[in-house]
Amino acid sequence: MAVLEIKNLHVSIEDKEILKGVNLKMQTGEIHAIMGPNGTGKSTLSAAIMGHPSYEVTEGEVLLDGENILEMEVDERARAGLFLAVQYPSEIAGISNAEFMRAAINSRRDEDNKMGVMEFLKKLDEKMALLDMPEEMAERYLNEGFSGGEKKRNEILQLMMIEPTFAILDEIDSGLDIDALQVVSKGVNEMRGEDFGSLIITHYQRLLNYITPDVVHIMMDGRVVKTAGAELAKQLEAEGYKGLMEELGLDIELEEE
């Protein structure tokens, strides 16, 4: 069992403090969801965990099995077992999907344990079939010319091929129609197990109708203000953020959607 723990994390961008002391702990075998209104710091949290250079950590730690990953370079964090699926994946010309994924897989393996071509292709075919992706997408340049839905499926394909210890999924439901949402959710649920944990960042309950979280965290004003089971997401859907704020006695100005 691996453990990911965020302790008193403060993060600023351009001298503006966004995260104001986030605390969160999860382990493999669990799926956690983070919900919250616009501007509360959900995407900032994911970027800070993975080491985006625009985000300055001013206080706190992010521990992976007790080791502070904030002291690691971005590629070291990925090799340690972290994976980030972002809202808007970058397009990279000249590198095919297949080349990228095989390189990513083998970067986490010892020299005498690299994944061979045939083993890789067999696994790739299986995962692409599960996600209803045409075979030709494997040879297309990474995200180049992909629709929004194709990019999201491709992120989940990378997740299933790389098999990280912890995956941070930042609004993977954004812009998806119901069919694409079901396929993406199918991929995440396929990964579920004792060797995998995921932190899902979302605005809406609808994704959590397909991926049932073990734990739900509500973020407001740069902090986690409430943590409970999957029923918390349904409560939020029924009452809205303002209702939750009233329950918790919070006075926070929400951004407009």
UniProtKB/TrEMBL annotation:
Residues 4-246 form the ABC transporter domain. This is Fe-S cluster assembly ATP-binding protein. Signal peptide: none annotated. Keywords: ATP-binding, Nucleotide-binding. Coiled coil: none annotated. Belongs to the ABC transporter superfamily. Ycf16 family. One of its GO terms (molecular function) is ATP hydrolysis activity. PROSITE patterns: ABC_TRANSPORTER_1, ABC_TRANSPORTER_2. SUPFAM superfamilies: P-loop containing nucleoside triphosphate hydrolases. It comes from the Bacteria. It holds the Pfam family ABC_tran. InterPro entries: AAA+_ATPase, ABC_transporter-like_ATP-bd, ABC_transporter-like_CS, FeS-cluster_ATPase_SufC, P-loop_NTPase. It comes from Alkalibacterium subtropicum.
